[in-house]
Amino acid sequence: MSGMQQLFRTFFTALVLALSMTMPAAQQDDMVRKWITLSSQQLIDTAWHHTHGHNVTDTTLICLSMVVSRYDSDLPKQETEQCIQASMYLWSIYFYLYFDYSKSMEYLVKAQTMAQAASLHIPKIDNAFGALYQTLAEQCHDRSLHVRALHYYTQAFQEALRQQLDEETDNSFGNAIYVAAAIDSMEAVNSQWDSYQRLPVSEKNVLRDYNRLMYKGLRLMAEQKFEEAFMTFGQQLDRLPDTENYVRHQYVTLTHCAKALEAMGRRQEAVDFLLRAEQKALQSGMKDMQLEVYERMVGCYEQLGNTVLSRQLREKYMNLKDSLVNYRQMAGLSEMQFMGRLSQLNEEMEQVRESRDQLGTLLTLVAVIAFFLLVVFLILQHNNRKLRRTNASLYQKNVEMLKAEEEKRQLERQLHSAKPQEEKYKNSNLDELTKNELMERILSIMESGGEIFSPDFSVERLATLTDSKYKYVSQVIHEKWGENFNSFLNSYRIKEACRRLGDIDHYGQLTIEAIATGVGFRSRTSFVTSFKRITGLTPSEYQRLAREEASAALPE
Question: Is the pTM of the predicted complex or chain greater than 0.90?
Fold first, then answer.
């Protein structure tokens, strides 16, 4: 049973029990009153109340998920907006706190689906898509993802401007010019700038003044007027209030100052600004920004010839990347706690039902249960159709991300030679040239398929095929791709499984078990687990969506 079905079962079981209470009870179940009778807005307020800084509780996840589960296309506009608000709140939790981009994409797509069904144009959703694609672009250095992020930011800006939403207008424009500068394409925001500079500026609107100065400074950088750009960024810093609300903006401006100084060859001064940026990132817990500033500082210290500090910062960078993996594991733990809390709620409601021992209400209870079971069935059927549409959107995004992964791997092959050696292998006999040659042989074997889809394929066998030792193969995989052998192998197997599940003409007659065995998995369970972790969908869902897409492509 899916998470949504579990939520519906919890909701309607509790509702059945509440409606069947025709006689006063000796004790009222507190949890039923708390979670079932609250309005959507009250549930959202409760979620806010149980969120403390960067920590969320199972109560937060339960309350928000219950609001999302209440969505129906026939809901009044206000309640639909509450469902969208809850979904966006969940998106921000998984994106900013857990760094779980697959889960954040799931809730973002839900919010978009609900908004489109209600003909609502919400710039905040486009801004969120822009943030997601920008983050992915920065992690895999993919210009096409940056371009996509810029498209969403521009779309958000135009809609916010039309609706006269000042905060979203300022946020989307600031994001757009930041990305435009990152891909050396400031001309892409010329039309937005023409509209933005005509907007009024007041002392209260700090962000608008900040954005105008940032645009001017980035323009000067593009024109290689680095001294003037540095002075402009300095004006930004002077005008920003030193409050928590503007920490991220201060960070961005400090990094821009450092970039201008680097361009002028003043690297020690650039390091000073980067150190200040690091403090801002640490102050607000912005781990993504910490990664960026450490990477920048490594380059500066290398240019200054300070190998000791450069090596220390590389270690900081790698340790922080490892911590992001732990954050994703925390997301999984929160999910387990969340489902455990729902199970506990079910048990409490069952106790309430069993306590109704008055025989005079038994027939009424049975009739109400039968009626609401029918309602549950009909609603689940209705919501399954909506879930199929949402999964179809997720399927398309997985197909796009698989394509992006191919491009990323090609890029990584060019960049890996510059990647610093990890401390774990400091005594290794392999030099960088040998590592790169071994990496190419490994890629050749993995991308040729064939033997890697055998259940008995091992790191020892890969070492034999590449004419190397298994410890060297393990080292190269760990250093070049940041994975162990099993994760590395499974990613190729799952990618091939996706191809076969999507190739209905040649593999449509095969079962899930047959495809799992065909790509090297020994059991359906391990295959489904790996497939779900990598794609966000089960193999059955992926295959069904592929069949539907193939059927739709057939000529009528």
Answer: no
